[in-house]
Amino acid sequence: MKQKRRPGRRPKGVVTRGRVARRMAVTMLMPMRRVPQRIQPGPVPADETAVTYVGHATALIQTAGMNIITDPIFSSRILLLRRLVEPGVSFSSLPFIDLVLLSHAHLDHCDLPTLKRFNKTTPVVCPRGVGDLPARAGLRNVIELELGEKTRVGDVTVTSIPVRHFGQRFFLDTHRGYTAFLVEGGSRSVFFGGDTAYDRRFAEIGRKHDIDIALIPIGAYKPDTFRGVHCNPPDAIRSFQELQARWLVPIHWGTFVISYEPVEEPIEWLEAIRDELELEDRVAVLRHGERRFF
Description:
The protein has about 290 residues and is an alpha/beta fold. The protein has one domain: Metallo-beta-lactamase, Chain A (4-Layer Sandwich). It has 6 helices and 15 strands. The protein has helices at about 15-30, 110-115, 130-135, 200-210, 235-245, 265-275; strands at about 50-55, 60-65, 65-70, 75-80, 80, 100, 125, 140-145, 150-155, 155-160, 180-185, 190, 215, 245-250, 290-294. The strands form 3 sheets. It has a 7-stranded mixed sheet with strand order 8-7-6-3-2-1-15, with no helix packed on it. The protein has a 6-stranded mixed sheet with strand order 9-10-11-12-13-14, with helices on one face. Strands 4-5 form a two-stranded antiparallel sheet. Helix 4 (about 200-210) packs parallel to helix 5. The longest helix is centred in the N-terminal third of the chain and has 13 residues, at about 15-30. The termini are far apart. The model is unreliable at about 1-10 (pLDDT under 50).
């Protein structure tokens, strides 16, 4: 017998306009939190690899003597959504960027005001159907990859890896692709997950590729329907294990309010799982502005 819902109660996992509006209003009123000690990432020797968490899906990967930045967003707002924490590294403190990776066209991953600040000759690697956006920002060296394709930039090889998400920036541009990337050529291989839910293909990817460091998103999973396109912390751990990576670096948390879970819940939940599974030496939690060598 189908259970009747009590009148006036919101079904679990259903997005209501009222909740969205309240969240956005609260976000607009929040002051942007300062990072106590913002670092200025210095050069990293070619035979070492370091990762710095800048915020959201923006990370600075330093490997093979190159400086690679992922889904860069240094703006204080995404439309009406205010940034909660300033970038862990200021844009002016970035080292010379050798490569930009764009996983997809969503506003919180492909930020045109930020892209306009890079040197116009900076190489950009993105999925099919996304190259017009960095080109619109004035970047002239744009490489689009189909899933499974690879390209060589400097001393690294970048491979497009399938994930579970969606690509359109607005409503009608459904032609835009989405991807993760595997960066190889340095002392450590780095998987950048971009934005993804758990994907059963990760086990096959883990068997096919030797992955050292996996940057995997852990936030934006509530309401429950969001887990169709985003990982929660248990999903991230499962993805990490099936990818057979040596280290997990969590991303996509604590920077913008784009879902219903409390801001600090994703990282606290992940740390609890890490401790329970005794993965302290393999789950590298980086706060905004923290860097770790691997």
